[in-house]
Structure formats: C-alpha cells, structure tokens
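The protein record reproduced below.
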Amino acid sequence: MINTKIYKAVYELAEKLMRAADKEDREAFDSFYAELKAICIENENTDKDHPEQWETLADFTEELDDALVDYEKALEKAVAINSKEHMSSIALSMAKLQMELGQTEAAVQSLQNAKASANKVHDDELKAEIDELLVTLSAS
C-alpha cells in the first residue's frame, strides 16, 4: 500500500504536469517533473518506495528510452510486492512504448506478462486493452 502522503503528492504533481503540458508550459513541467523525480529517489529502497510513484514518473518521462527504464523499475517494485494490478498496467505501458520504439518482440512479451498478471485483477477494460494490443501485434 502506498503511503497516503506520498500518494497525494504524486497525484497532485501528475495533475500539475498534465496542466503544464496542456498549456505547453515547459518551465512548469520541468519543475514539477523534478519534484516527482525527487520523491521517487528520496523514497527508493525505503518502506515508502512504491511502484505507483515510479510508474507515474515514467508516464511523464519524455525520452522514450528513459521512460522504459523507469517502467522497468516500477515493474520490479510491483513484482516485489506482488501487486498484480500494477504489474499488468506497467507491462501494458511498457508494451506501448516498445511498440513506439519498434521493439515488437519485447512488446509482445510485455503484453503476455500483462495478460498473465491481469488474470488476477477485476479491471475488464485493462484486460480488453491488453488483448486488443496482442491481437494487433500478432496480426502484423
């Protein structure tokens, strides 16, 4: 379970990052991103470390290769706490990035991992999105 104070801070920063991105306010975006990254680094390898903060950081990381590294870190942390919901959503996000990067085999593997984890969650939309992307990749 993510610490409530950290969850609120991460959630509020995500909202601020979205607003800054919508306004194309680079200075604000960079500032909020730095705050989010600092939270992740500060809590890393402590009892406050949680995959959700790393997944959120990856969501806002603009360099695709760097975002993939952040998602991998988030996935490791999700596996460590056996959070199937986080494992499936992170693997799905990784697959989307891998598709963008032309890493089709890695994307298929990530989607298969996402599907395996999603079998244990009750999010039908997530399951459908994973299945849809798997079909799309298998057809190409």
About this structure: Helices lie at 4-22, 26-43, 51-59, 64-80, 84-100, 104-118, 124-139. The chain has a mean pLDDT of 94. The CA atoms of residues 3 and 48 lie 6 Å apart. The chain is about 80% helix and 0% strand.
